[in-house]
Amino acid sequence: MTFLRRVLALVMKEFMVILRDPRSRFVVIVPPLLQFFVFGYAATFDVTRVRCAILDQARTPESRELIARFDGSESFRVVRYLQGAQEIDAVLDAQQARLVLFIADDFSEKLLQGQPADVQLIVDGRNSNVASVALGYAGEIVDRFNRSWLASKTVSAGGVRLDVEERAWFNANLLSRWYVVAPLGGTISMVVVMLLTSLSVAREREFGTFDQLLVAPFTPGEILLAKSLPGIVFGIVDSLLLVAGGVWWFGLPFRGSLLALVTVLTLFMASIVGIGLLVSSLSMTMQQALLGAFVFVMPSVILSGFTTPVENMPHWLQIGTLANPLRYVVTALRQIFLQGSGVADVWPQLWPMILIAVLTLPPSAWLFRHRVG
Amino acid sequence: MDSPDRHHSGQSGSPNAIVLKAERLVKVFGQKGKTPVTALHEISLEVAGGGVTGLVGPDGAGKTTLLRLAAGLLLPSSGSISVLGLDATRQAIAIQSRVGYMPQQFGLYQELSVRENLDLYADLQGVPALQRPERYEKLLHMTGLAEFTGRRAGQLSGGMKQKLGLACSLIKAPQMLLLDEPTVGVDPVSRRELWDIVNQLVRDEGIGVLMSTSYLDEADRCDRVVVLHEGRILAQGEPKFFRETLRGRVFTFAPAPGRGARFLQGKLSGTAGVVDATIRSGRVRCVFDAVPSSPDGLVSCEDCLDIKAVEPNFEDAFMAMLPHQELPVTPRALHAEEGAEQEITVQARGLKKVFGDFEAVKGISFEVARGKIFGLLGPNGAGKTTTFRMLCGLTGVSDGEVLVAGKDLRRSRARARQRLGYMAQIFSLYRQLSVLANLEFFGRAYGLHGRKLAERIDWALDEFDLRTRQDVQAGDLPGGYRQRLAMAVALLHEPAILFLDEPTSGADPLARREFWLRINGFSQQGVTVVVTTHFMEEAEYCDTLLIMSRGAELAQGTPEEIRNLVRSHANPEPTVEDAFIALAEGEIPGQLIPNGGRP
User: Fold this and answer.
1) For the domain that residue A66 is a member of, what is the CATH number?
2) Are residues A169 and A181 in the same domain?
3) To the nearest whole angstrom, how far is the Cα of A205 from the nearest Cα of chain B?
4) Are residues A236 and A150 part of one domain?
5) Three-class secondary structure of residue B163 per DSSP
6) B269-308 pLDDT tens trace
């Protein structure tokens, strides 16, 4: 009974210290919401309305149809018609257009004669991502043009043609926003929880209040419990808020089970609190703690598969990502949101997070008393 | 002194010329959302060259503000201040190139060596390279740092750091020197040396020195004293003038055998007409508000052996001058636990602490009996706090053993800490929480709840006069109240053992007296007290004490035993400070007292 009262007092104190401090309150609420919207809108790989210039030397109905297909698509926007090949350099250099479609003057002749007719695509390779995506879209447009051309001209000639019909599962329209927003809640609340917990012990060390706790009849375990709870609670609340925002604001489907979601988030927050407290109890000042938190946050986001797939990384780096709790939660959240997974399905993502929490929490408790400056 | 350049500067600082003049100087600090604080109320004063003017007053009196205004680092809210004939508001740069200013925390670069720090300040002040070797030699010789030029500033002792700071502020032979508490926390030997340096400067170069201090005994060494209190000048004049006004009003009372000096002090401080009662060299020193008709009638013969009229000093005058407050009565409400007087509560054997290759504490042993006050004395950096933290289990022991109430706090279960009260050197309560929330949290931390908790909080709010401020955030409390709150927290759960780390550091003389009266009361009720302090005169309030210097024990015993170490014909009534200086300089061998000073 006295044990419970003491621990309750300690937990209440932790919450009060965070909620009474305007800066801590701010950290918990404002940056997560801001980042959520910024990421949700800005972080998309879909390439739309690429500026393109046209050099049409054929000037035939056929060439105009091809151009119309470019201009009419979501992906491209025709900004200029060029008069000669000498203008291509200038328009790309000045970034007025990222892509130039060059139609030679014998385009229609060859088409009508049934010969292969070339169109040339010149792309600005400085942004390789945009360039390759734009090339892909352009290829698709040309392909469709080809097919409709064949269909209209040689209806009976070819007979049955083989055609590939693509269907993407889980994200039928292959919206990259789904890919980004699904794990966004976990990623953003990780930063918040990391800041909160990494400062928690270091702040008390800096102001001397930690000594006052250590001479009181608290065990390290009790202090650990009281220090972990606010981080876990604020982390879960923040990420659930962002999950709700993803569903109702960005229109993401939520196909999995709520239980799986809460389990994943709880274990994830426990592992982050473990790392945060380890950083905090190793630090003697708040400055050291903040540095430690940033040293962890940046690489863990990059190595999580949140933006670039882990499979694309070199093998040795992929092994490194196994120690990154964010990697598991990113995978698990995508599974729950898009694939409709339950607790059993995400188990391979759960136990590594448990392991990380178990490996970080006890050493932090030990360090409370044994880290001396 | 020997360079032609300095002869020149000596001329402008000719003795008795006015080097600093303030007229109706006001400084108000305003912070948004808070009521503005008036640090200085219409101060008018003059400082003469060729002497030391002491700026004396408790913390928060406005000493630092005045010095910073003089150095042109702050702008006055109204009124004027001029230094060496230059207006501090409009000609701040000109003043800064002629004046040496040493702030409380002098900006030494801890990673640079002594020599590199000097070079840096010489560069900053634009001292020509040709003049440097001569100037360096003089300063290093004067400060005794000549053999340490290669040592990093961070590795110097507290006293050596202050001397290096002083050397850096003297690098371009200033015409006036502004020193902000240069001696605070410095060991008595270094303090004496710092004073020698300042006196030599005044003698040789004829410059004017304005120096603030919170050590009242240093006021007697000044040529002139200005007493500041809450931003106003209470009095100014030669120290002699202050002493004269008290003639016939200061007496010392020797306690009767069997009656402790603290008992007598408690009795006398509650007597009408007594404005100050302290323990000095084993006797109770009393200052009266007027010349008493018969001091003999004040105490009964059972308590007091004899009474002597003594020569007043500046501290007596200062205490008589302060607007007087009721001294607190002996506190009630801490119930003593019955037990054998001789029961050992705190014990240390061969205690050592090593940080890397630095030995912070070099094998210390002592014992404290129940209900006794044990003092750890020594200058800053002597290893007091490290020893203290080992006792409380806050830091590991490199070698040796500590037992508190029979247990090693570092290894024992959390329960063992239940009977401990702890007050840290820096204010270490939750600044974001209110006074009441802090009391509630720490009360619950020690297992108090319900009616018992309410009772104890009531007691604390009354005892420490915190009721009117119970909803103030602890971080917004003024210094004195922070100290009270910290002590209230330490006592809330009625601990049997109290650990107090430098509880009086930074407190004004009045608060320090109040504090010791309280501590005295608690010990009478059976609470064991372990306390550290760098104020040597506070040794008199302890039953036994251990004097430390550079991590080692210098001496251990009762205050009387320690004073007796240096008693001689030349000095028939030595103070503990005299003993410290003699011990530190190796004039007498330390650790004379066998049996660890047990009573």
Assistant:
1) 3.40.1710.10
2) no
3) 9
4) no
5) helix
6) 777 778 888 888 788 888 888 887 776 666 666 677 788 8
DSSP three-state, residue A257: coil
Domain that includes residue A69, residue range: 50-174
Record the pTM: 0.73
- Read off the pLDDT band of B205 (50, 70, 90): confident
CB A187 within 8 A of CB A306: yes
| First-residue to last-residue Cα distance in chain B | 55
Query: Is residue B19 within 8 Å of B47, Cβ to Cβ?
Result: yes
Question: Do B417 and A21 count as a contact with CB atoms less than 8 A apart?
Answer: no
Tell which wins on pLDDT, A267 or B512.
Answer: A267
* A310 in the same domain as A206: yes
Distant-in-sequence, close-in-space partners of B489: CB < 8 Å, separation ≥ 6? A212, B423, B429, B438, B439, B442, B460
Please, what is the average pLDDT of chain B? 82
**pLDDT value, residue B295:** 66
Q: What is the pLDDT of residues B146-190, one digit of tens each?
A: 888 888 887 777 778 888 988 898 888 888 999 988 887 677 778
Phi and psi for B573 in degrees, rounded to 5? -125, 75
Which of A215, A224, A369 would best serve as a mutation to test chain B binding (most B beta carbons within 10 A)? A215
Distance in angstroms (rounded) separating the CA atoms of residues B509 and B57: 9
Separation of alpha carbons B355 and B367, rounded Å? 25
CA B259 – CA B442 distance, rounded (Å): 37
Tokens 């808020």, residue located: A241
Phi, psi of B460 (to 5 degrees): -65, -45
pLDDT at B11 over 90: no
Using a CB–CB cutoff of 8 Å, tell me whether B413 touches chain A.
yes
For residues A108 and A58, the answer to whether their CB atoms sit within 8 Å is: yes
Instruction: Give me the percent of chain B exceeding a pLDDT of 90.
Output: 11
For B444, the token pair is: 């619950």
CA nearest to B389 within chain A: A211
The pLDDT of residue B594 is 41
Domain-ending residue, one of A128, A159, A174: A174
Of A153, A174, A195, the residue that ends a domain is A174
A237/A288 same-domain check:
yes
3-state secondary structure of A65: helix
Q: Do A208 and B417 touch (CB under 8 A)?
A: no
- In which element (H, E) is residue B459 found? helix B450-463
Are residues A168 and A196 located together in one domain of the fold?
no
Assess whether A299 and A246 both reside in one domain. Answer: yes
Best interface-test mutation with A: which of B423, B432, B433, B452 has the largest number of A CBs within 10 A? B432
| A128-168 pLDDT tens trace | 777 888 888 888 888 888 888 777 765 444 444 455 555 66
Q: What local confidence, expressed as pLDDT, does residue B528 receive?
A: 92
Taking a C-beta distance cutoff of 8 angstroms, is the pair B84, B48 a contact? no
Q: Please indicate, yes or no, whether residues A185 and A327 belong to a single structural domain of this protein.
A: yes
Instruction: Please name the residues in contact with B392: beta carbons below 8 A apart, sequence gap of 6 or more.
Output: A211, A215, B404, B409, B420, B422, B499
- A181 and A320 in one domain? yes
Beta bridge partners of B368: B346
The beta strands (E) that lie in chain A are given as 50-56, 76-81, 99-103, 119-123
Contact assessment for residue A104 and residue A57, using Cβ atoms and an 8 Å cutoff = yes
Rounded to two decimals, the ipTM of the complex is 0.73
Tally of domains in chain A: 2
CA-wise closest residue to B170 among B190, B133, B197, B130: B197
d(CA B417, CA A87): 84
B445/A217 touch (CB, cutoff 8 Å), yes or no: yes
Residue A370: how many other CB atoms lie within 10 Å: 13
DSSP characters over A147-193: HHHHHHH-TTTS-S--------SSSTT--HHHHHHTTHHHHHHHHHH
